[in-house]
Amino acid sequence: MTKWVAALCCAAFVGFSGYRPAHSQKAEEKAGSVPKTEAEQRPVREFTLLNIEFEGSKIWVPGTLLVKKGEHVKINLINNAPSGAHGFAIDEFGIKVVVENKKKETVEFDAVKEGLINFYCHLHVAHIGGQILIMK
Ligand SMILES: [Cu+2]
């Protein structure tokens, strides 16, 4: 009876905990996985920016993004301003997209160099953009 209880407990632990012996994990890694490229190994830093209007001014918010050098940056852009299409550009990474009214776009880049870079709306000079600080 004691052996049956011990066997059931062990089976429950293996079955419900997701535990697998180390040798079976290594076998799966060898059989099915492809080594990741350098770009795929980068940690991902994701933001969501809203384009809003406040007292007649169009603004991308938040206006300051902090990133570590080497990260893969993903920025989701949502244009909630009622005034139509707006742009989002980052010259240093060759990014220039138009976000239509009430639509979403996503831009991505690898933060491969340090520094303070600007993002802005390339369609409207008065549109308030912001900065991305890429730190060491
Ligand atoms: Cu704009």
Fold and architecture overview:
This protein has 136 residues and is of the alpha/beta class. The protein is 23% helix and 42% strand. It is built from three helices and nine strands. It has helices spanning 2-17, 22-32, 38-41, and strands at residues 44-54, 57-61, 64-68, 72-79, 86-90, 95-99, 104-110, 115-119, 130-135. The radius of gyration is 24 Å and the shape is elongated. It binds copper (II) ion. Copper (II) ion binds next to strand 5.
Low-confidence stretches: 1-29
Helix tally?
Answer: 3
CATH top-level class of the largest domain: Mainly Beta
Q: Which ligands appear in the coordinates?
A: copper (II) ion
SSE topology string: HHHEEEEEEEEE
Shape descriptor:
elongated
Biggest β-sheet description: 4 strands, mixed
Report the C-alpha radius of gyration, rounded.
24 Å
Q: Overall pLDDT, averaged?
A: 82
CATH fold call of the largest domain = Immunoglobulin-like
Percentage of residues in DSSP E strands: 35-45%
Could you tell me how far the N terminus lies from the C terminus, measured between alpha carbons in angstroms?
A: 61 Å
Helix percentage range: 10-25%
Q: What is the domain total for the residues?
A: 2
- CATH homology superfamily of the largest domain: Cupredoxins -  blue copper proteins
